[in-house]
Specification:
Elements: H1 2-9, E1 31-35, E2 38-39, E3 50-57, E4 62-67, E5 72-78, E6 82-88, E7 91-98, E8 103-106, E9 111-116, E10 120-128, H2 129-135, E11 148-149, H3 153-165, H4 171-185, H5 200-213, H6 220-227, H7 231-242, H8 246-264, H9 269-275, H10 281-292, H11 296-306, H12 322-333
Parallel strand pairs: 1-3
Antiparallel strand pairs: 1-2, 3-10, 4-9, 5-8, 5-10, 6-7, 6-9, 8-11
């Protein structure tokens, strides 16, 4: 009897979708953009109500212009931290650091200009305006145009999952991610009203101070004094301008500098940790892995494999008390 029941329930009829009867095509689930926001999609893919593409640019500075189609919303989600200036008709929409997970939206028929001032990687969603009106009330998309959400947790998690799949991502999986993100945008409780961002001239002073002194301990009070604000107001406005808490920004700056030393020098990890402001190699490794997803040693090996012209540093056996000695010198210096 058990076998008969298993046979009976082995086939389950699911409700059909009109798209199930369409002729399948083999386009990639995530198209690669040859130019910013322009993909070589097939004619069938162009008809999708949610199309997904990826844009990457390794240049330090690049400028682009694109206009959203009249029947689409454009959504960009940063896969890595970059610095960008978004403008339209001489109006600045965003100017500053765009952390990984930042989400921004352009409405239909809207021209957007961007200047990236660092290498960048984005996942782009091209969502049909009819998709919003079909699945959710029209009121849910009011205010989406020029919406910028710094470090949106849901967008960061979903796009990371999709980006990690890469070319192996199935179209159904990619579409589900797109559906969830589209639904997320229509939530009325999205934090559209924010604390006023730190003015650009104050932010510039703080960034310059961090760049000049990141190798030593920098307190919140010190940064607030540089900005000319109280600690509470500075911390809130700094986060509104950058998406980072001051301490997070300092740690990220140290890690980025450490990456440069890892790829351009043969210095041991303990020395690099001290050079970028960490008192121990263990703390440096912990923070590096949390931010970059890899230990410094693994990251250095991977970076050098991508750049065959660089020499791999000779493996040196350090005395057992090397870290202790370096840390003592650091303590004496302070």
């Amino acid at each position: 009897m058990l076998i008969e029941l298993q046979r009976t329930h082995a086939r389950i009829d699911l409700p059909t979708d009109p798209r199930d009867h369409e002729t399948p095509y083999t386009a990639q689930a995530i198209a690669r953009e040859s130019q910013w926001r322009q993909t070589a999609c097939s004619s069938q893919a162009a008809l999708d109500d949610i199309a997904i593409s990826r844009w990457e640019d390794s240049r330090e500075v690049s400028r682009h212009t694109a206009t959203t189609p009249p029947d689409r919303y454009f959504v960009g989600i940063a896969l890595k931290t970059t610095r960008a200036i978004l403008t339209r008709d001489r109006q600045v929409i965003f100017d500053g650091i765009m952390p990984s997970g930042t989400l921004y939206v352009s409405g239909p028929s809207r021209q957007l200009n961007v200047q990236f001032q660092a290498p960048c990687a984005f996942l782009h969603l091209h969502i049909s305006a009819d998709h919003f009106s079909t699945h959710w009330s029209r009121g849910g998309v009011e205010g989406l145009d020029d919406l910028v959400l710094l470090r949106d947790p849901l967008a960061a998690g979903l796009t990371k999952a999709l980006a990690e799949q890469g070319d192996a991502a199935g179209r159904q999986f990619a579409r589900c991610i797109g559906e969830i993100l589209a639904m997320h945008l229509t939530r009325t409780e999205l934090p559209r009203a924010k604390v006023n961002a730190l003015p650009k001239w104050r932010l510039r002073r703080v960034e310059q101070h961090i760049a000049a002194h990141f190798e030593r301990s920098i307190s919140l009070s010190e940064l607030a004094n540089v900005a000319g604000l109280s600690r509470m107001h500075f911390a809130a406005q700094f986060r509104a301008a950058t998406g980072y808490r001051p301490r997070e920004y300092l740690l990220n700056h140290r890690i980025e500098h450490a990456k440069s030393l890892l790829t351009t020098t043969q210095r041991p990890l303990a020395e690099i940790a001290l050079a970028v402001g960490f008192s121990t190699q263990a703390h440096f490794s912990t923070v590096f892995k949390r931010i970059s997803g890899q230990t410094p040693a693994r990251w250095r090996a991977a970076a050098r494999n991508e750049r065959p012209g660089l020499e791999t540093p000779a493996r040196r056996r350090l005395p057992p008390d090397t870290d202790w000695a370096i840390n003592m010198r650091y303590a004496d210096a302070r």
